[in-house]
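**User:** Everyone, produce a chain:

**Assistant:**
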Amino acid sequence: MNLPNKLSLLRIILVPLTLLFMLPVNIFGWQPEGWNNFINSYGMLVAGGIFIIASLTDALDGHIARKYNLITDLGKFLDPLADKLLVISIMLAFINLGRLSAWIVMIVILREFAVSGLRMIAASKGEVVAAKMVGKIKTVTQMIALIYLLFEPLLLKIFGLGFEGYPLEVSAVTIIGDVLIGICVIMTIVSGVDYLIKGKQYLKG
């Protein structure tokens, strides 16, 4: 297994590790108090650091594979799988934490299914639907939005006040997070529509 594939595999391994520090443990009512207190106090910081490392591997594996001609069929499978697992898993965790709406994650998942389906149809006809710049921008906006949300609790502690007369939940910190999520949703939709329009020939008949 070459280095880019190892980086993709590492990104997959880092997904459950990130979730471990995001979500308090609750197994059939059993909740380890010490661990959960740590998670509630510092978990997001650790998860944010792990997520940043995982995001960097996403940039590195593709760059190394192209620069040193290490592109393989395994890499073509692992790289997008790792990306989807990383983004969707963290988003699902934020639903559990009450920070994201399920509709947002449904839009992201629908886009991934649609584009993956299009690529499968193209592959069955012996053609490859290459990654487009708008798709890469979509991924970057998703990563930035999720990194921000992971560090949002720290920012709330630092700046800690909502607008005068309003609760903490409507502070500028959370508004910025909402805007970043909104941008990533818009780019998710735009990139999905772009793929479908440019690949419509594969859907005929």
